[in-house]
Every structure is written in structure tokens, then in C-alpha cells.
Amino acid sequence: MADKKPGAGETVVIKKYANRRLYNTATSAYVTLEDLARMVREGTEFVVYDAKTNDDLTRQILTQIIFEEESRGEALLPVQFLRQLIGFYGGQMQGVLPSYLEMSLDSFSRQQEQMRGQFSKAFGAAPGAGLLDEAVKRNMAMFAEAMKMWPGFNAAGAARPAAAAAPESAAADPLAEMRRQMDEMRAQLDKLSQPPGKGG
User: What are residue 152's phi and psi, to 5 degrees?
Assistant: First the structure.
């Protein structure tokens, strides 16, 4: 019974009970945060609802999974990134940042998949650890570089180059400034995502 899997594209419903236990309605079995983390890695979509109130707890549970992974020493999120992320709560960019992060991570995942596919076709196997590490480092550098385009992600107190300084009218029109930053960011991402030795 515990092996039962939902059909393709089906979203699994997880119920959270008052005793904090999580119940997978697709397998009719109790699960742990570790089980849910495995489901995420396998690409299984799920939603978590409070069994009593039916409130959607998916975001809270996914955040808990990240906390568990980080506290086990599987550190993925740099401390400075976490500080900067917290700084965005309640700020003007809070509404835009989730979409930007989602877009960036989606692009990052697609690049990794393309790279694995290319290596599999060329060599019949996944890339060696060194090559993959190098690609990941490049992607992380690209992500960090793009983050600097946002005012809150710049190093504390670091002055931006005169060429990148915002026009005076930006203070009066934050939407225009946001568009300008998005354009800068796209140009920077395009430039950084080019393979070494291409264009310039």
C-alpha cells in the first residue's frame, strides 16, 4: 500500500493533524518531512492541508524541510543570502522578488538538465564531478552577479558605479526604476550565461 503512486501530473494531498503528524492520502500512510523531501526530489507534486481547518500549509512545510536540511549540515543557503532575503520582507521589492527567484532557479535547473543531456549524448554518461562543479560555480556566480543588480542585494554600503547609478527621476517613479533594473539584469544574465570563449 505504501508503494502506491499517484498518476502522472496528479497532486498528492498531505493532511497535517494536531499531533503534527503528516498523512499521505495517496498512500494511506503517515509520512515524515524526510519523505516529503524525497517526493520533492522525485518531482512529485503535493499540497499540505491542515486536517481540521483545511488551511493550506504547503509553504510552511516546505520551509520546515529547508530548515531540517540546513540544520543537518546540508548547508545550501549562504548566511549573507539569508540575511539579505530577510531584509526584503516588508520592503517595496517583496512582491517582485518571489517571481525573480523562481525564474532564476528555473533557469538554473534547465541549464543543469541541458548539460547532463549533452554529456549523456556525447559520452554516454553524466559529466565528471569536476566539470559539473565548474558549471555549478559558474551558475552561482551568475546568480550572485544578478542579485547585485537589486539595491538590497548590493554589498552593504558599496557604491554602485556611476554608469549604473539610478536617474534622479527614479525616486519619483519606482516602477520605471524597477523596469530599468530588470532590463539591466536581463542583459547581465545574457552576458554571464554565454559559454566561455563566445561573444562578448
Answer: -70, -20
| Locus of grid cell 520582507 | 89
Distances 89 to 20, 58, 83, 176 between C-alpha atoms, Å: 27, 19, 11, 21
| 145 Cβ neighbours under 8 A, 6+ residues apart | 188, 192
Per-residue pLDDT tens for 14-41?
999 988 899 999 999 999 999 999 999 9
pTM exceeds cut of 0.85? no
pLDDT in tens, 110-155: 777 777 777 677 666 555 555 556 666 666 666 666 666 555 555 4
Q: Which helix (H) or strand (E) holds 19?
A: none
For the chain, where are the alpha helices, taking DSSP H only? Answer: 33-41, 58-71, 79-88, 97-123, 129-147, 169-172, 174-192
For 90, the enclosing helix (H) or strand (E) is none
Q: Is 48 helix (H, G, I), strand (E, B) or coil?
A: strand
Distances 36 to 95, 115, 123, 189 between C-alpha atoms, Å: 27, 27, 34, 33
Q: Are 12 and 2 in contact (CB under 8 A)?
A: no
- Give the span between the Cα atoms of 84 and 62, in whole angstroms: 20
- Quick check: 57 and 50 in contact, CB under 8 A? yes
Q: Which three three-digit cell numbers place residue 148?
A: 547585485
In this structure, the chain runs to a length of 200
Phi and psi at residue 78, in whole multiples of 5°? -60, 145
